[in-house]
Amino acid sequence: TILNGTALDVPRLERQQARRALGLADDALVVGAVGRLAPVKDHRTLILAIARARVELPGLLTVIAGDGELGGELRRLVSEHGLNGVVRFAGYRPDVLSLLPAFDIFAQPSLSEGISLSLLEASAAGLPVVATGVDGNLETVRGDETGILTPVGDSEALARAIVRLGVSRELREGLGAAGRRYVTARFSFQRMTRDYEALYVELARRKGLLR
Fold first, then answer.
1. Which of 48, 71, 112, 118 gives a 20 to 30 Å CA spacing to 192?
2. Contact at 8 Å (CB) between 65 and 100?
3. Which residues contact 1 (CB under 8 A, 6 or more apart)?
């Protein structure tokens, strides 16, 4: 198996610059999510989790970057729960990698995932991640070592994980640093490229194209 890889040292804005670009206060606690607004990404569970988490973290904000078919429905859900201004939709952002330093926590509540590039990119940026324990997420996140895994569709568990990270800067920094080390070791673009090259060379040798 050749796992996806990601660039580790892409240009990123400084935290304050990234926050200004998104209209966020410097002292806010911010959960970020990146992905198309589609059923499989389950942003609904994230929104419900934010509503719960704000009971203990009243200053919590959320930025969701991405466009998709559920945009209107999700905005209505935000309004129904009194979260206008708390959950913010950034739309499609081609510069999203440069904006990751604006976040304190990265959330991915998907119903299903392969090897998620968004998750790898967040970990490469040193962000602590909360993700559902499904499919490829089980390879990219080591529960309670490089991030926190939660059950699919469980807004209460997701809220607890967000609160757990929100109240402990030490935990956020520890998981974020461990996640970056893990992605560097297993999911770098350089490692992926070497693995593909080795595979092609081996296949060519089997066919007698190389000696």
1. 112
2. no
3. none
